[in-house]
Amino acid sequence: MRVLPKATGLGGISSRRGPNQSVKPTKQSLPQVTKQTVLTKYRPFLSSTMKNRSTKIPIPSIETPNKSVFTTQAYAKQLTFFIESTSGPDFSVGDIVRVVFFAKDQRNNAVTTNIGDYFRASISTLETKSAAVGAITDHQNGTYTATFRLLWAGKVKIKVQLVLPRQAIDVVERTVGEHPFDKVMFRRQYRLDGRTISTRCSVDPTVFHNTGPVCNHSDPHAGGRWYCEKAANISCETPGYHSYILGSGPKNMLRPGEEKLFARRINPWRLDISGSPSTINVTKGLDPLAKRRRCMPGLATPQINGFYQDGVWNSLVCHNRHFSNQSEWRECLRGKTVHFMGDSTIRQWYEYLVGTLNLTDVTLPEATHQSGPSLAKDPVDNITLKYRTHGPPIRTSSTKTSNLKYIANALDEIEGGPNDVVGITVGAHLTAFPVQLYRERMEAIRVAIRRLHQRSPQTLVAIKTANTFTSGSEVNGGDWLAYRFDLVMRELFAGMDVVLVDAWGMTSAQQWHADVIHPGSDIIGQEVELLGSFICPL
């Protein structure tokens, strides 16, 4: 394997000091910790420059005898939708339907002041497990439009849901600004002579408040920032164990009353908006699956890129295939090595194929199934499946630091070729941090993919988007934080010769399971079959 040169420092990570070198905090190396220092140390965060920022326009309120208080649940009750007049009244497969929605006050007057709310929209027929997402447009005046493409015949239900109002999003973004690096904390443990020695770790050394020397484990080449407090009399190069410190972040990040902005603390479901008609009859029309292209890397993936029918995902991007039995999978993967890299949502892909092919999963020495590295081989058909987690930060139980590898570095170790398939996902473990950290990580992965394609152009690389999920704490995880990462990912990989598996759209569309970060096996199966459609296209 050829040796690849190291990249220069990314966004504040010094490339002059090598990884695993101890740094004695001084005024020069670690400036005094102040809010201004933390917020200006790195390039501006994308979250501070995104569209739909807070508008300073008075927010709608709910009138009570004593005062007006904005709550997400009360605001959701003010919202209503209707079908745009140019969309109907008769509907058939292939039609485009636009649904307009905004808030109305108690006197039924339009309230057009809330700009930048975060909604999700879908259409479904639960009896046939048919569903698709809608594309939402924010008109920047308090009104919104959800655009749907009708893709099957029958009674179709329209659903528009408020995920977070702008006021809640502002709170989430504020907590990122006030606590960019210490919402969650990690530890590095050393097990020596029967003793366990623990130190704290983070993506930024300022969280340690200059209490002692710090080990710099950052890797600019891979877009990774990582620092740990140095243990006394232990070299920074000494291997250890990485784990997540549960509940270690700053407490009470919400100010009094702000909990009312997060309706999911009370109701675990998204808040449905009322509207009429909420169900429409769709008759047969144009076949949406006619004349689809062959599945190949580099195809554009619009927001409405497929739909479920009878619980089966049909891609509108290309002619995806469905694998009816194990033998079809074996024929497709014969001679292939599939490298899955990332978090537990892509480990589900690995587990699905291991189960489908009836292989034996082998966790490598001193590794865990949760983080890998894991390996499964079929000597008869020469199929090899691999899984490994990405480098820190990762919220996992204790695992050897030597088993954590940045994806950019893991990609550089793959020789590649027509029999190599790579699946990548990153995001769920970084949501508590500024979006710039995610951008740097993904930029390094993008460059590593280009290096891989330069030496092995026929290597198939697939990027899996994030899953939607309900989180117990919107300030650490959840749809909004994952969604803004998803926008960055799509921007960075647009136009590249890679496959985009839109798990975000597939998990948003389905309406027959709870909205969880680890979908059921039927949804995972559809995601993996879409990947298989590019490995073995029709």
TrEMBL record:
Q: Where is the composition biased (Polar residues)?
A: 17-33
**Region feature (Disordered):** 1-33
InterPro entries listed in its UniProt record: Ig-like_fold (IPR013783), NXPE4_C (IPR057106), NXPH/NXPE (IPR026845)
Q: Where is the NXPE C-terminal domain?
A: 313-536
Q: Which Pfam families match?
A: Neurexophilin, NXPE4_C
Q: What is this protein called?
A: NXPE family member 3-like
Gene field: LOC109470614
